[in-house]
Amino acid sequence: MTTSPRREVLEKLTPVLTKRWLSPNAWSVRTYEQLDGYQALKKALKAHPDDLIQLVKDSGLRGRGGAGFPTGLKWGFIPQGDGKPHYLVVNADEGEPGTCKDLPLMTHDPHSLIEGVIIASYAIRAERAYIYIRGEAVHAARRLRNAVLEAYDKGYIGRNILGSGYDLEVVVHSGAGAYICGEETALLDSLEGFRGQPRLRPPFPATHGLYASPTVVNNVGTIASVPYIVLGGADWWKTMGTEKSSGPMIYSLSGRINNPGQYECSMGITLRELIELAGGMQPGHQLRFWTPGGSSTPLLTADHLDVPLDFEGVAGAGSILGTTATQIFSDQDCPVYATYRWLEFYHHESCGKCTPCREGNYWMVRVYQRILSGQGTHEDLDTLLDTCDNILGRSFCGLGDGATSPVTSSLQYFKQDYLDYIEGRTAPRLSEKALVGAH
To answer: What sequence ranges are listed for the domain NADH-ubiquinone oxidoreductase 51kDa subunit iron-sulphur binding (predicted)?
Structure first.
């Protein structure tokens, strides 16, 4: 008897990060406590903070927000005995097109994040922690605030937590819905009451973060992973994933598949396996291009179906794992138009602080409008590449760099699609109204 590929994949999977999501009232402290909730905190408070930092280092946990920086190493950068207050800031400003793993986690299992916040704060000797959540995420913010109140009532947050002598205050702060505030220093400025714009570095947040004090900024998925590592141990955590990209990951699948949604898998799974888990491509659709980590990561194609979706595997294929927002496009989708829509987003969300991003995205949107209106020229393609070259590495933060990714990668793999618009083989996608101000 043979088993299907889908069944073989499923047999390898045991939910860790999402194990409570489908439980009745999963967001309540009662359900959380019934399913190992706050056991890791009790264990952590008996350990020395430095031992917890070493545990996270040993686990190989890397940032789940896109950069993949070793979490324990980041915690270890915080100077101790400096006489300054220390802060933990959780980046919950999830706003990249296609990315949707932090919001369902906060909606269905907010206490896993809160427990991780307490443990991480204890490890870095912080007495105040902030969760900065995207302003539009009203439902998730309500769940999170209610969970914080429940944790206070239970004595998991506040003064003398569980009799340990450790004090912690946790604040949930809703931003104004600016994508730029997903950049950690812009987030810190916003928390301080200023306009959210990236800071010049150095100095770095580890020494001069929130209120010019030592600060750790971590993603929701990173912090929510910590309780599982404390309970299960570093060796157990490393049984999942790959050698350099350990642990499970939540992959956000959207697009031309039968069952879009969140899929928790060990890092290193391939897109072929993920599509199989998601019920396959929609009828009549064949995979053509996809994003491994959101719209700010270079596009990949059907030739990359078997690339391991971990930090090293995706980098080896010429892209970035990013936020594991896997947007799947078929032979019925246009890579030129998709790139144009992403660029509109980046142009709109640019904070305007630095010239390359502010001006470059503005003009690239207009070049795309010309091409998609049937008014493009061959020189437009050189203009796009030249503009990307002037944005990449020359912007204050990663927003500018991310905006160039779909442009350069779509030109690399799908230049013929651009030429078909320019040379008249493909009918214009936009009307002449789009050309207003585009010349």
So the answer is: 336-381
Which amino acid is located at 389 in the chain?
D
Please name every residue paired with 170 in a beta bridge, in sequence order, or none if there are none: 129
Q: Which one is the CATH code of 17-237: 1.20.1250.20, 3.40.50.11540, 3.30.70.100, 3.40.50.2300?
A: 3.40.50.11540
DSSP assignment, residue 246? Answer: B
The better pLDDT of the pair 11, 115 is held by 115
Q: What angle do CA 260, 99, 328 make, to 5 degrees?
A: 45
> What's the pLDDT band for 3 if we cut at 50, 70, 90?
very low
Phi, psi angle pair for 394, to nearest 5°: -120, 5
User: What pTM value is reported for the model?
Assistant: 0.93
Determine the topology of domain 248-330 in CATH.
Answer: Ubiquitin-like (UB roll) (3.10.20)
CATH topology of domain 335-435: de novo design (two linked rop proteins) (1.20.1440)
Average pLDDT over residues 175-197: 94
pLDDT-derived band at 4 (thresholds 50, 70, 90) equals low
